[in-house]
Specification:
The complex is a heterodimer of chains A (380) and B (627). Chain A is mainly α and 380 residues long. Chain A is built from 16 helices and two strands. Chain A is globular, with a radius of gyration of 21 Å. Chain B is of the alpha+beta class. The termini of chain B are far apart. Classes of the chains: A mainly alpha (380), B alpha+beta (627). At the A-B interface, α8, α12, α13, α14 and α15 of A face α1 and α2 of B.
Chain lengths: 380, 627
């Protein structure tokens, strides 16, 4: 721990930074990515094509992006918080307008090499901008309700845009992520209690005004899967069969009958945890859950070590965001919550989700490397 | 800095709260995982297997049918079929033209193929053509790589090597009918390409011949397509059936019958009731039914006025004519109304009130005793006898000797015939019985209807010393042998039977007998018998006076010719009943025909040889290829 104080200087050499890269975290990310590729190999019936190979390429590519982000000075990320947020908003609006112009409901922009989903990146931008806002906010003002109006707007705008897509899952994740930022910034707990009461009270209102028919369908089916065993409830039922039939030891790699025989829907994306659990059983799946838990906790630990409020809030917020992904996805495939279409980060097949997860861990690592850096209230 | 510290402290507390929340929620997820994968694992394993495992039926091989010598009368042959799976074919039309380089498909076949494709999900193979010859099969096998979605599959089809020679006995198989499905819920019947017996032995022993379906457990994917086989339970071949038919004799019978437009004949063992030959002409090629015949052939079979599809030996119903006189005679003897010496004078006609009944012989026979009356077939003798004993005695004797009721024969095409009496007439026609009808019935005319099978049975019971034999056709069906049961003794006087037999002897072997021209010569064995000529149209007074020439009449109006024969004379072993439809007269056509058949029967002497016992292992596991 020789470096702990020497790193308080503003300038660090690249070598010093590389030494500060958290190897444990890198190792966990490599293992998780490997598990994802193995699962995709199995999803294709023991083939690299069509998913595993492309996921491997993405993983390697985004791994370098992550490392680069980690090495860039955190003050740059502080400076980028508002521009990134505004850019994200513009992209969301662009998607919305494209939908209006008649290309149908779309959630992504085709960049050729990647189908970019702006809402995925927006989750990170919201956390960055809130981290910066609370970093700049003097401590005594955090208890004041008036100082919460602006950050509430920062959350509300993207939530509204995403709801219009419509993408309930992502909207809720941005909302929860933002709420977690409020909590960690020191906003009064009473306010949270009040908000939760308000939220519960507004459920009926949301039901009639905000939810689309297919979303209501999902909720109703979730509450009673037998209501539609061959339709919407089919996914949940088949996923539970796959999980349960895996038993303690699993059916063995490449031997998951539910997924190989296509009873399991969306096995390469949202239901990839089920595929893994069917083939590797309870032992394999708690192993995976444990690794994912370690990844979450790493973020919290890094936050606790970080000197600047921006770094703390960034790392903790991204950790919460990652946790939301994992928990919503796993709870969904286990039939604990409705099917909302949230991928399992680092494992599910998909470019944007992989990029978003790697960018998040890059930022968390940057907060770790630059944990002793003092940041000004306003970077501009 | 203090403020910064405050901020840090708040953050630390709340970050730990967050971390705790993460731990708690992940713990919750783990608990749920344990519930699914440990507590409920067995339950979900069952559901998972139910998802992936499907049971498919394997069609069994149909049982073989043998004659009593072990000659195969019905067997199965490999059926190479060309199948295609629509989902693997891009464009059906170009596929068909590509296929046209290897096999020829008619326009009709192409239309049928397209219909079949449209009827099933695209991953289920449909039949393009069956009965491919080896040359075509090998040509297609070689070109398989260029023909995606094509496969060759091996099934079985039924072959009757002797075609029309045994068709009426064997019957045929054809596609499963709605009627079959209604009668039996067996899943096997729903297999595509499955065939069931529709007539004859094929129908009578359908359940035994069909065999038992095998099953294979396969793993299927979500759209029901087979991924791999997990387990196989072989199908059980259908039971073999060994018939009492002697094929060489059967062949001769069928050939002999072919001299006439429409005729049938049965050779039966007088003591056991076993049927050695059962011929009905015209016949048909029963192979046509299993291969699928053209609509034209089917129509011509249906509209043929000689009914080639009807087994006339068991389903043809004819007035017995004079062959019935033995029954009337026996009824008179048993009633004590006549004896050996009772004589009746025949002036050529018999008057009952104002009605006059003619004897076939113009001018009459003169004074006749019973034996003479039988051998010369004097009608007046029986007219007189019948009016004395009445219809009920005649009826009762006829029933005892196997007429007027089904004989519980193997072939379900069997018809009951009809022996009329007063009660029957009242019930069915609604009029009371007239004495004149008794007169007509005494010589087997009027309402009376009998089948050749019944006449053969009657003849056997008359000559075998009074044993109530029944006709039968199968020595063995799978593991079941026909038990050798001595037929019941009939309560009938042997003296009376001897008298009847003497009449039948004289009919053939006495110069004045009606069948003298058909007696057996230079064989060292004699036969007995009785002719019969059954009127189809009523003979008018004018025709009678002019002396009608039957040959000048339309075929449909001519008399039926019948003959019942048995041999050897002193120790009867075989009986033969022959009916030549519109054959003009018993002595003219039916008797010579029967003589040839009996001659051959005596030569072959089937009764002296033990029947084929069959391959004791015939019930072993065999199966057709999956369809």
């Amino acid at each position: 721990m020789r470096s702990a104080f020497s790193l308080s200087q503003d300038k660090m050499s690249l070598w010093e930074k590389l030494q500060q890269l958290n190897l444990g975290l890198l190792f966990l990310i490599l293992i998780t990515g490997g598990i994802g590729i193995a699962a995709l190999y199995s999803a294709a019936g023991g083939n690299m094509d069509p998913w595993a190979e492309r996921q491997l390429v993405r993983f390697i590519f985004t791994f370098f992006i992550m490392t680069a982000i980690a090495l860039i000075d955190i003050s740059w990320w502080q400076k980028l918080a508002y521009p990134a947020y505004i850019g994200g908003l513009l992209l969301l609006m662009a998607v919305e307008i494209m939908g209006l112009v008649g290309m149908g409901a779309q959630r992504w922009i085709n960049l050729g090499f990647i189908q970019l989903q702006p809402s995925e990146l927006m989750k990170i931008a919201v956390i960055m901008v809130l981290a910066q806002y609370f970093h700049a906010l003097p401590n005594e003002k955090t208890k004041k309700l008036s100082s919460l109006i602006f950050p509430a707007l920062l959350i509300g705008l993207p939530v509204a845009l995403v709801m219009m897509q419509p993408d309930l899952g992502t909207a809720l994740m941005i909302l929860f992520g933002g709420a977690a930022m409020f909590l960690m910034a020191g906003v009064s707990l009473w306010l949270f209690v009040a908000l939760i009461v308000l939220a519960v009270a507004s459920i009926p209102l949301a039901w009639y005004l905000l939810l689309h028919d297919y979303q209501k369908e999902r909720v109703l089916t979730f509450l009673n899967p037998e209501r539609d065993p061959l339709g919407a409830g089919y996914h949940i039922t088949q996923s539970k069969i796959a999980l349960g039939s895996g038993g303690v030891e699993g059916k063995g790699f490449l031997n998951g009958s539910q997924s190989r025989l296509n009873f399991l829907p969306e096995k390469q994306t949202d239901f990839i945890f089920t595929l893994w659990a069917e083939e590797w059983g309870f032992l394999g799946s708690i192993g995976l859950l444990f690794i994912l838990f370690l990844l979450m906790i790493y973020g919290v630990f890094i936050a606790l070590r970080s000197y600047s409020a921006f770094g703390r809030l960034l790392a903790a917020g991204l950790s919460v965001n990652f946790s939301l992904y994992v928990m919503i996805n796993v709870a969904m495939v286990m039939g604990l919550i409705p099917v909302v279409g949230v991928p399992l980060p680092l494992i599910s097949y998909g470019g944007t989700a992989m990029l978003a997860a790697m960018v998040s861990f890059g930022l968390i690592m940057s907060a770790n490397i630059h944990r002793n850096k003092k940041l000004p209230r306003f970077p501009y | 800095m203090e403020k910064q510290n405050d901020k840090y402290k708040t953050f630390s507390r709340r970050a730990i709260l967050i971390g705790g929340g993460q731990l708690l929620l992940m713990g919750g997820l783990t608990a749920r995982l344990a519930q699914l994968q440990i507590a409920k694992a067995d339950q979900y394993k069952v559901l998972s297997d139910r998802n992936r495992i499907d049971l498919r039926l394997l069609p069994p091989s149909r049982g073989i049918i043998y004659d009593r010598r072990g000659i195969i009368l019905a067997r199965n042959e490999q059926n190479f079929r060309l199948l295609m799976t629509a989902e693997q074919v891009k464009d059906i039309d170009s596929f068909i033209s590509q296929l046209g380089q290897h096999i020829i498909l008619s326009d009709e076949e192409v239309t049928q193929l397209k219909e079949r494709i449209a009827a099933v999900p695209p991953f289920i193979p449909v039949e393009v053509k069956d009965r491919l010859d080896w040359e075509t099969v090998s040509k297609i096998e070689v070109n398989l790589p260029d023909l995606p979605g094509v496969q060759i599959d091996v099934g079985e089809y039924r072959v009757y090597p002797y075609k029309d020679e045994v068709a009426h006995v064997l019957g045929y198989v054809s596609a499963v009918s709605k009627e079959d499905l209604r009668r039996s819920g067996e899943q096997l019947l729903r297999l595509p390409g499955m065939k069931t017996g529709k007539v004859g032995i094929e129908r009578a022993y359908e359940k035994n011949l069909r065999g038992r379906a095998g099953t294979k457990k396969i793993e299927v994917n979500v759209s029901g397509r087979e991924v791999r086989e997990l387990e196989r339970l072989k199908a059980l071949r259908g039971d073999a059936v060994i018939l009492t038919i002697d094929h060489p004799l059967q062949k001769l019978v069928q050939e002999q019958l072919a001299q006439h437009k429409s005729a049938s004949s049965i050779v039966m063992d007088a003591h056991s009731g076993a049927i050695y030959a059962l011929g009905s002409h015209p016949s048909y090629d029963n192979n046509l039914f299993s291969s699928g015949m053209s609509a034209q052939t089917w129509q011509s079979l249906l509209s043929d006025p000689t009914f080639p599809l009807t087994n006339k030996a068991v389903a043809g119903q004819y007035p017995p004519g004079s062959t019935f006189k033995m029954i009337t005679a026996l009824a008179g003897l048993e009633a004590g109304e006549i004896n050996e010496r009772t004589k009746v004078s025949c002036p050529g006609h018999y008057d009952l009130g104002s009605d006059r009944f003619h004897c076939w012989k113009r001018g009459g026979h003169g004074s006749m005793d019973l034996v003479e009356a039988l051998s010369q077939s004097c009608d007046v003798y029986f007219y007189d006898l019948a009016t004395k004993i009445g219809i009920d005695k005649i009826y009762e004797t006829a029933i005892r000797f196997g007429l007027g009721e089904k004989l519980d024969f193997d072939l379900r095409e069997e018809r009951p015939g009809l022996i009329p009496n007063a009660r029957w007439k009242l019930g069915h026609i609604g009029r009371s019985w007239k004495k004149g009808e008794t007169v007509v019935a005494s010589i087997g005319q009027g309402y009376m209807q009998t089948t050749p099978l019944q006449l053969a049975t009657m003849c056997a019971r008359l000559v075998n010393g009074g044993k109530a034999v029944r006709p039968w056709l199968t020595h063995r069906v799978g593991p079941f042998y026909r038990p050798t049961v001595e037929p019941d003794r009939m309560d009938v006087s042997t003296t009376h039977l001897a008298l009847i037999k003497r009449g039948m002897d004289r009919a053939v072997n006495h110069q004045q007998g009606t069948a003298y021209g058909s007696r057996l010569q230079d064989l060292g064995v004699d036969m007995g018998g009785k002719t019969g000529t059954a009127q189809v149209r009523r003979i008018t007074q004018r025709q009678r006076e002019e002396g009608i020439d039957q040959e000048a009449m339309a075929w449909r109006s001519r008399h039926h010719a019948l003959f019942l024969g048995y041999a050897p004379l002193d120790n009867p072993r075989y009986v033969c009943a022959t009916v030549v439809e519109h054959g003009i007269g018993g002595s003219r056509t039916a008797a010579p025909l029967t003589r040839e058949i009996i001659k051959k029967t005596l030569q072959l002497d089937p009764a002296s040889k033990a029947p084929y016992v069959g391959d004791l292992e015939s019930a072993k596991e065999t199966e057709a290829q999956p369809i």
